[in-house]
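Tutorial handout. Part one gives the primary structure; part two gives the three-dimensional structure as tokens.
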Amino acid sequence: MRILVLGGTRFVGRGIVEAALDRGHELTLFNRGSGNPDAFRDNPNVDHIRGDRRTDEVAQIAGNTWDAVVDVSAYRPDDVRAVLHALSISAALHLHLDGVGIRAEHPTWIDESAPLLQVSESIPSSDPRAYGGLKARCERTLRDAIGDRLTVLRPTVVIGRATTRIASAGG
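Part two.
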């Protein structure tokens, strides 16, 4: 499988890349190179495209076809719009990583029927609702554009590499 990973060199993204490589997939990492620019440089199954999705550099991913897109770094709806536009919505599967912080309420038990935060795209980053609210808007933007080709992961607690290894092993 050919996979485009947006981000992929730090924290959860790195764990996802490692798990995909362990399964023999071919990956392209598109990121700014600010986190760990040499990650996976020596792996022949990983291509690297340096760029910022918030600039015209996102055009570097246009014209390519991947079986799946994994997005661990989208924060604002324009982040996902830029990628969707560049890809012409071509991937069969789009995996988006959110968190439970996108929920409007935080009861003891949450399921998929729990409402998402509703915020304006212009919400200031200093507002405590900004992170969860903007991630929720990213999800809605993706769902409106690609429908059931979207899979959303909402981990409750992410502790790094160990979490990814456990989750990828099915446990």
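Part three, for discussion. The CA atoms of residues 46 and 59 lie 19 Å apart. Confidence is low (pLDDT under 50) at residues 162-171.
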